[in-house]
Amino acid sequence: MSALQTRKPTGLPSWPILLLAGREKAGKSWAAVSASASPLVGRTLYIGIGEDDPDEYSIIPGADFEIVVHDGTFPGILAAVRAAVAEPAGELPTLIIVDSMTRLWNLIGDNMQAIANRRAKGRKNAAGDFTISMDLWNVAADQWSSVMDALRVHQGPVILTARLDPVAVMENGQPTTQKEWKIQGHKSLPFDATAIIEMRERGQFLITGVKSARVQLDKPKLFPEFTVDRLWADLGVADGTADRTHATVQSDRTGAEPGAARADAPAPPPVASQDWAAQIMPVRDLDALKAVHERATAAKELGLTVGADHKQSTLDLIAAWKLPKPQGALTISALIQMVKAKIEAGELPSEPKPADGSWPVAEIPKDGES
């Protein structure tokens, strides 16, 4: 029996992660908040990092957004992002704005520098600080990834802002007189974005990168009269979207030496910790199924596989809903999609009833009992 799992592409775009990168006072926050007026979105949650809260921007015609409050620490920011993603959506998807990712990366770097200074090892750099060791840079990269991973599971639009600065082109380790535009943030930020809009001058919008079958870009192009809503329309999201999915990667932190295991030994897939099959079993309508989907998304377990600990409840679910038997590992997302298809087809399972014809009744605890 083959363990290979495949699925057919939907042909639909997912909501993009849009990066607005610009110089100071170029209008990044204005453009981001203006997107809250789009008829394509419901709530807009603005998460500011090191930027003044845009209270005044509520006067933008049609703008309707909420400012997410946090304590400014990295754990507080991460918790705010995860809480925003976990918020249930209404009839329209929720827009999440993070302003700015440059400030986030600076904060992470400052935290690592503080740790390096406390360690007081190595040589001081020109700024009088101790060099940040590679293990701390790895921690910094993990913290950055934890924020991006949380945003990736959001099934709605995301807008990120970042600073864009002209920097000297380096040649043989030495600066030259040539300049290039560089997005300030973790080096992976441009790769994580679906589309990049550079604002080198206020009122000038240059689209420099996009991942789309509908918008083809052979070189950076000016985007006259740019708005986020207009870019969304060009990307085709107004005609329907599919869930944003991506192939996750898991680094090996077990410490095992290379070659300790057979090179051809298959790695076990990540296993979901919750019994999602049991949570799906009583579902009888799309709203209830959507609630399970949102909980699995918030728990970051949507793409994980059903574990051996929950094998029986999974088998019960498959039997009750008359689902096809899985060929290999079965993900939580696949379970939800199969049940969704059954609900849409009106093929609901009959409610099980005990053989004696009675239903079990739980005793009501008395005052003081739990």
Walk me through the structure.
With 370 residues, this protein is of the alpha/beta class. The chain has two domains: 222 residues, 3-Layer(aba) Sandwich (Rossmann fold); 69 residues, no CATH class. Helix content is 30%, strand content 15%. It contains ten helices and nine strands. Strands 1, 2, 3, 4, 5, 6, 7, 8 and 9 form a nine-stranded mixed sheet that branches. Strand 7 and strand 8 form a beta hairpin. Helix 2 runs parallel beside helix 4 and helix 3 runs antiparallel to helix 4. It starts with 16 loop residues before the first strand and ends in a 26-residue tail after the last helix. About 6% of the residues have low confidence.
Instruction: Write the CATH architecture name of the largest domain.
Output: 3-Layer(aba) Sandwich
The biggest sheet, with number of strands, parallel, antiparallel or mixed sense and barrel status, is: 9 strands, mixed
Number of strands: 9
Supply Rg: 24 Å
Element string (H = helix, E = strand)? EHEEHEHHEEHEEEHHHHH
Number of domains: 2
Indicate the proportion of strand residues: 5-15%
